[in-house]
Design brief:
Layout lengths: L2 H11 L3 H13 L1 H14 L6 E5 L5 H8 L4 E6 L2 H10 L1 H5 L3 E5 L13 E7 L8 H10 L1 E11 L8 H17 L3 E8 L5 E7 L1
Parallel strand pairs: 1-2, 1-4, 2-3, 4-5
Antiparallel strand pairs: 5-7, 6-7
Bound molecules: S-adenosylmethionine.
S-adenosylmethionine binds next to helix 1, helix 3 and strand 2.
């Protein structure tokens, strides 16, 4: 793997330093990133009483859309300090109003502050970075309220990715959900290049 490719992947995994700040702005401004984040929030049809958890929120585009959609409370978990600061600026008013809480932590060890239960849990282009994804999904499943929904979005970013790569990603997520004891209820596709897929499940 070329050093540049390694650096790009490393920054997506945990953006840090000056390059991380640029990555945060790029992620926030890139039209397809924005589209897939707004799309999943629409798909989820958030209701006013909903308590929502997003893991790996990056620059916080979906967090902002969830708060605007009227969720009762949105909790976000992200392990990158650079991303946390960026998302906190984007969501400053909602944080002040007590409608959004952003926590610096890893999906691998979620703190007690994010015990839930949550009506909606989502992760957008984040699950692929987590070690033992099925274990992470099982952990998230335990934090779902009765009747709660979980949405895992993937838009493959590997060079040469096509619609077939997206379909494979959806199949892999569905398999990991089943391993985690979740019940997949459907997959939606957003026709980007390559497509974004959203696999939805309940407990
Ligand atoms: C490709 S970015 C996607 C960001 C955002 N969800 C979006 O679609 O714009 C992946 C994000 O997941 C975060 N992340 C990766 N592994 C994580 C972990 N173990 N715990 C918490 N966040 C993690 C990274 O820091 C990064 O901000």
């Amino acid at each position: 793997m070329r050093a540049l490719d390694r650096d790009v992947i490393g920054q997506a995994h945990r953006p840090r330093g000056a390059a991380g700040r640029v990555t945060a702005w790029e992620m926030a401004l890139r039209p397809s990133n924005r589209q897939r984040n707004h799309w999943v929030v629409e798909l989820l049809g958030v209701r006013p009483a909903d308590r929502v958890l997003e893991v790996g929120f990056g620059p916080g585009v979906a967090i902002a859309a969830l708060a605007r959609a009227g969720a009762a409370h949105v909790c976000g978990v992200e392990h990158s300090e650079v991303m946390l600061r960026h998302a906190a600026k984007r969501n400053a008013a909602a944080i002040r109003a007590g409608r959004v809480t952003l926590v610096r932590a890893s999906a691998v060890q979620l703190p007690a502050a994010v015990d839930g239960p949550f009506d909606v849990i989502l992760a957008v282009n984040a699950l692929g970075f987590w070690p033992a994804p099925a274990e992470r999904l099982a952990d998230l499943g335990r934090r779902l309220a009765d009747g709660g929904r979980i949405a895992i979005v993937s838009q493959p970013r590997c060079p040469g990715a096509t619609a077939s790569t997206s379909r494979q990603a959806a199949a892999e997520i569905e398999k990991q959900m089943v391993e985690a004891g979740l019940t997949p209820v459907g997959t939606e596709t957003l026709p980007l290049d390559p497509p974004a897929v959203c696999v939805l499940a309940t407990r």
